[in-house]
Specification:
By secondary structure, this protein is α+β, with helices and mostly antiparallel strands. The protein has a single domain, classed as PNP-oxidase-like (Split barrel-like), CATH 3.20.180.10. 37% of the residues lie in helices and 26% in strands. The protein has a 3-stranded antiparallel sheet with strand order 1-2-3. The chain is globular and about 40 Å long.
Length: 93
């Protein structure tokens, strides 16, 4: 069954949980994070609840630049992919 990609929050959690966790570990500076769940998205980035051995915390992952008003929410996917690519580049993978 195809997912509805119209809801960026659901799409990230349903289809990109591993990417989100990786971004939190690299870009959020939480390398010991064991899970991450997006709780809000907007033009600026993703708010994430992160589980670490020390407990849960909230982290905000910001896009390199905000998505223009006239391109949101459609532009969310491109901005998210860029953020994951940046995380991979920083991690050297």
């Amino acid at each position: 069954m195809a997912h509805d990609h119209g809801d960026p929050l659901q799409h990230v959690n349903d289809d990109h949980a591993a990417d989100l966790l990786f971004a939190v570990q690299v870009l959020g500076g939480l390398p010991d994070a064991t899970s991450a769940r997006a709780v809000a998205v907007d033009r600026h980035g993703v708010d994430v609840v992160v589980t670490t051995p020390a407990g849960d915390c909230e982290e905000e992952l910001l896009f390199a630049e905000p998505i223009p008003d006239d391109e949101y929410p459609a532009g969310f996917r491109v901005a998210f992919v860029r953020m994951i690519r940046d995380a991979r580049n920083r991690a050297g993978s």
